[in-house]
Amino acid sequence: MTALPPGLLIAWYGDDFTGSAAVMEVLHFAGLPAILFLDTPTPERLARFPGLRGIGIASTARAQDPGWMQANMPAPLGFLAGLGAPLLHWKICSTLDSAPGIGSIGKGTELALAARGGQAASVVVAAPQMRRYQAFGHLFAGTPDGVFRLDRHPVMARHPVTPMTESDVARHLAGQTDLPPALLDLETLHSPDTAQARLDHALQAGARLILCDMMDSTSETAVGRLLWRNRDRMPVAVGSQGVEYALIRHWQDKGLLPDAPPPQSAGAVARIVAVSGSVSPITAGQIGWSLENGFAGIRLDARAACGSEADLAAEEGRAIAAALAALDRGQSPLIHSAAGPDDPAVAALRDAIATSGLPADRVNTRIGAALGRVLETILRQSGLRRAVISGGDTSGHGTAQLGLFALSALAPTIPGAALFRAHGDGPHDGLELALKGGQMGSEDYFGWIRAGGGPR
Q: What is the pLDDT at residue 1?
């Protein structure tokens, strides 16, 4: 084969909005046109984007229980499987955010296999470009302070919903599915013949999950080769955008995909608006930088999400008024519910949830939706055309308030947190929007988006 087959190469279903967008970003900046839909598209909406090589659908599955997955995932997975792409990707978080009762990767994998078929699903969680590494079955993730095994990671080990107590990917998934795993480790991947023989043996022995180590460009190429050569037997891939990075590395290595021209900045604007529901210390550092560089920090008291609709509406109105006042002063408003895990607001919200008796996931959904309504009102009243939503779950709930149905890539920042062009039927069509996971981005990320993103 001297060229990639025509038409779609990959379809993906994402467990949150930021990760789903990251897949589209990887494909687009490699020269493969891709679009991310925020729900299953109508034929009319799909027809607006001809010549696509990748199509994705975002969801909030990471914040849902297995019952929700069983009720809501088969239809979009079936739609994507029916598009005829060689690979169907169940996109999960690169830090394995999940538990048996919430965001179950195992349950999603079972549903993806049911939709697409195949002997097994590949599992590629690592993405070296994002400092996510897997070695001999154990997952590691980078922070500004270094690289940590997942169960010792300063953020993931303290995650408020799915704290990670296990770095062994197979052991973690064993709590979520009975699908038998097999591991292709770094030593195996070093030799293409050995890796293929090990894969053949694992499939013959009945393995349904083929876990792949990945540490660097060499192992990334090896994984991409295995995924592409065995796509008929393993048409389902489970993992981060490391799946696409590996495939692209292999395609480029074999001359199937030429290097794409370097992406450019979208250009600077004077002001943007940002909302954040993340409690990550990385986001806290970004908020701190922003407050010293032209942004106005505005608190949204998340405890209002434990009260009545009137309580929450009043808090939204207060934040909107403060943001519009900041814009009048020439500042960029940054509305946030917390600044890191040690912010007293986190403990205060926890106490409020306990007192209210409401389920925590219900409160988190209300917070995300409130931030989305705040953002929508500020954009509509101010006329601003560039915004940021920080937090994986917040991005899903918040984006739903903007009347959008799709995103396409516009300008890169760090891998996994690009600036996008939003598509919708209402006033926010054409909005320039960045969706950032809580653990993603440089310290000056909000300023970088204000400057238009782009390589640097």
A: 57
